[in-house]
C-alpha cells in the first residue's frame, strides 16, 4: 500500500545506521520530531464536494486526501500536520484517451478546473489544488498503464501515459528492450509526467533525457485531440513535440506516449573513483564528458556530500578500512567521490573502462572497482526514503537543483551552498549543506544540492524556515546564470522565478501557447505560469 503522507510503499523504509545520530547532532544539532496526524484525522477534514455527479468521478474523502498533495517538503508538512489547505473536489481514473476527452468536455460544460495527476511525485507543487470558487477535479492517469504497441523495426513503443517506471521497464524487458529513463522518482513517477516536466534520468548519458526519448503521442486538450506523429527528424517548422514537452498540464493531458527504446545491453557495471580534492574531481568529470567516452551515467559528490554518504552508509569497519587505504593513496580529508556507469557490449565496456581509467588517473583519481558501485545500484531508488527516516528523528531535508555552463559551476555552487548555510543564522540554526553534480554535458552540468535542518517547535515555524532557505537560494540561482530547474520542472513553487530565465517576451509566448489550447484557463492554473488569483 502506498503511503498517504510520505514517499513510497508502506512496506519499504530506510534505516539510519547507529552513527547517524552523532553525525546529525554534530552538524545540525539535537532535534525533536513533530507529531503526525492519522489518515482518519485527515479524512475527517475533507469538506463536501462541489462537483456535479459523473460516472468517472469519485468524491470519496480518502481518494481526495491521497490526491491533495505531491512530494515536496511543504507537502510533507501538510500531510503530517493535517493543514492541507485545499482538497480536490473529486478524482477521476480514466482508462482510455476517449474517457480523458469526455472528462475535459464535462469540465468545460460545468466550469470545473482540472489538475492532471501521474505518480504524484512532484516536488514543486504541480498537483496541488488551490483556493478557487470553482470546483477542482484531479484526473489520475494511473489506470492507463500498459504497453499498447512495440514497433521493433523502428524501436518505438507506445504506452498509456500513466505507466510508472517499473512497469515501463518490466513490459519492455519482457520483449528484450529498455527505455533507460531512471529518475530518482522511478518507483512512482509516470511516463506522461516525465514528458510534461522534461525529466532527466540517472543514465541520460547513454539514453538521453526525456526530450530525446519522447517521439510523439497524444494529448487531449480543451480544444480537442492533438496527435503528434513520430518522425526521426523534421525541419517542417516549430516542433509540436517540443511544445508538449514541459507543458506541465497547462495545454491538456498527455494520454499516450510514444518513446524511442533500445535493445537491452549485454552488460552494465557501476564504478567508484575517489579524487583528492574538488578541483581535480570536477576537471576529471569535464574531461570524461568532453572526450565523449561512452559512459551511461556520471555523478560527482563534493567533499561534504562524500563525507556525509560515508558516515550514513553503515558498515563502519569496512568504511574505516577503505578510508585508510584511500588516505594512503592520496585521497583523505577533502576527497570527492565519483560514481560512473558503463552500459553496452562487453567490448564497448572494456574499451570505455580503459579510457576512463587513463583520464581519471591523470587527475590523481583512485579507482576502487565495482563494490561501492554495486551498493549505489542497489539503493539508487531508495534515497527518497531517507527523508522519512530523518523526519522521524526531527530533521527536515530538501533539495535544490539547477544547471549551468562549466565556467560558472564553482561560482554558482558556492553561492547556493552559502545561501543555504547562512539562511537561518538569525535563528542561530545550523544547516547541513552538500552537493553533487548529477547530469553532464559538454557545455556544462547540473548542480544538485541537499540541505538538512532541524524542525522547529511547530509546523508553521518549520515551514517558515523552509521558505527562507528555498526562496533566497532560488533567487541566487536565477540571478547567477542557473536555470530554475534542470529536472524537477516548474510547478507552482518555481513559477515566480521563471520570468527571470525566459524574459518578458518569452513568458508572453508561453502563455499565448497555453491559451491557444486552453482559452478558458481551466488546465492546472498557477502551474508553470503565475496566474491572477
Note down, in words, how this protein is organized.
It contains 19 helices and 18 strands. The chain has 533 residues and is an alpha+beta fold. It has four domains: 36-140, Uridine Diphospho-n-acetylenolpyruvylglucosamine Reductase, domain 2 (2-Layer Sandwich), CATH 3.30.43.10; 147-263, Uridine Diphospho-n-acetylenolpyruvylglucosamine Reductase, domain 3; 267-379, Alpha-Beta Plaits, CATH 3.30.70.3450; 384-478, GMP Synthetase, Chain A, domain 3, CATH 3.30.300. The strands form four sheets. The chain has a seven-stranded antiparallel beta sheet with strand order 15-12-14-13-17-18-16, with helices on both faces. Helix 4 (73-81) packs antiparallel against helix 18 and helix 17 (409-422) packs antiparallel against helix 18 (459-478). The relative contact order is 0.13. It comes from Alkalimarinus sediminis. It holds the Pfam family FAD-oxidase_C. Substrate binds at residue 387. Keywords: FAD, Flavoprotein.
